[in-house]
Amino acid sequence: MIRRCLAALIVVLTAGVAAPSATAAPPSKKVSVERVPLADAAPEVPGKGREIRRSKPFAMAALRWNGKNPDLVEVQAQHLDGTWGEWQRLPAVDGQDRGRPGGKQASEAAWLGDSTAIRVRAESGGAPVDAKTVSVLLIDPGAAQAASTAAKPTVISRAEWGADESLRTQCFQQQAVGVEYGDTVRAAIVHHTAGTNDYTAADSARIVRGIYAYHASELQWCDIGYNVLVDKFGQVFEGRYGGLELPVWGAHAQGFNKDTVGVSMLGEFTSVAPSATQLESVAQVLAWKLAGNYRDPSGEVTMVSGYGGSSAKYPLGTSVTLPVIHGHRDVGYTECPGNLAYQELPALRQRVSELMGDWTAGAIYRKWQATGADAGPLGGVYELERDAAGGGRQTTFAAGAKSAYWSPATEASLVEGMIRDKWRELSAEAGPLGYPRTDELSTPDGSGRYNHFAGADGSIYWTPWTGAHEIRGLIKAKWAQLGWENSPLGYPRTDELGTPDGVGRYNHFDRSNGSVYWTPGTGAHEIRGAIKDRWAQLGWERSYLGYPTSDEYSVPGGRRSDFQGGYVVWDAATGSVTDRRY
């Protein structure tokens, strides 16, 4: 039998049947979760289950139990005005693929609104379950806030909806784990959170906070399971920590959390359809994620189940072909995202396609295709394609190891490793080197790697012994004139630097103790070996010699370099070095 998104328990929790106080304490600003054994609730009342009452209000609830899932789990809450809400079914949770093991099963967390009492019904085989095996979690998600007006940014960040990051970091520390990432985003899974659809725009952040606290602390998932959540008013909330641009490994669909994005609509859509505003926001989120990851929203994808849990529809290692946009029920034994939401998936795919436009026209996409797409050396998109400085575009591949950049003036080019690190240190495309104009290439001597860049005729060269260093302009031109890395200078061992007197620029090189110095008045000239040592002893450019005005050149019996105020000669027979004024 297909398991409902929220398991069915028939238990009503009420610590007493007295009328609620008119002066009930207001909700706190911090998320808190109280665990109440069902056995501590008031005795079972036919049709009403067991009841729990509290002086401190709560706004969400969930159940945990030992052993087999009950056939029915339902809750009913008493609001602050004394009225009882509708009964809500709580589906069994289906979340992360791995993590801290435990014998307890759990329901989804349901939004109840501010309440001081709850009734719980939990049944198996038409009879109440053993109350000793069940706990009720009463969640206070903090005080209500004004409805978000954040149209910019489109996504309400974790900080904006009030995530208590200590819940995540403490859980990570306890489990010795951290944020996990997949390789790319290959598909999108649509969910609903279940529970009521009766909430205000101001309630939404509270609901998200409550789900987060429940998933992170009670279920020990260390964070909220979904990557993105969308309410019926179209507000979009950042979900699982780690960056919406990245393939964060969620906890929303056992076996298929890796390389998917889980988008959950706040509400229950078995009998009520999601709002048009909600669906449009879901479409916008998916269009952004799928276009930036080069995925066809109307296509199919073959994935392999990564987990064989009780709620996973496919055993570990099973290869499954699915629509790129599919529902939770397609991979798990659940009704999620509800019949009426599931019926909207064809229209959702069409709308996402419309919003994505001609997403295959980009230069980076074409380069990715030319290298073999997912099967090539780049693999899938890791950090989704997005805008870069000056009207360009950028993305990363190969689990973040390789980046591709394009601008209107340059072709799509790849930059990676220590060369990319150095370029980013120099402010990447917004820095003096601008955009890459070549991929990373091998030097003719086979020892180094390099990229050329569009700005300042710049390049970055790397070897295992020098690391990565930039060289540009007339200094680079002089190095090229001398024979690049095959010259007496070898490879750059510094970036281009400014001289202490503020007039000149220079690079040091790894061979012959060589350097190239430049000033506006002298141009660029190389200097090396014993002649450079003498110049250094005299005080470099602040000595009477000033800056080099020639490269080192041959003279009878030795070598010579000329300077603004004199010259230095090296005697090949004796090794002596002499400096003289003109």
From TrEMBL:
Matching PANTHER family: PEPTIDOGLYCAN RECOGNITION PROTEIN, PEPTIDOGLYCAN-RECOGNITION PROTEIN LC-RELATED
Gene Ontology terms for molecular function: N-acetylmuramoyl-L-alanine amidase activity; zinc ion binding
Residue ranges annotated for the N-acetylmuramoyl-L-alanine amidase domain, each copy included: 174-338
Keywords, sorted A to Z: Signal
One of the protein's GO biological processes: peptidoglycan catabolic process
Protein's name according to its UniProt entry: LGFP repeat-containing protein
Signal peptide: 1-24
Superkingdom of the source species: Bacteria
Keyword Signal: yes
Pfam families: Amidase_2, LGFP
Family: Belongs to the N-acetylmuramoyl-L-alanine amidase 2 family.
Coiled coil: none
Listed InterPro entries: Amidase/PGRP_sf (IPR036505), Amidase_domain (IPR002502), LGFP (IPR013207), PGRP (IPR015510), PGRP_domain_met/bac (IPR006619)
Ranges where the Peptidoglycan recognition protein family domain occurs: 153-308
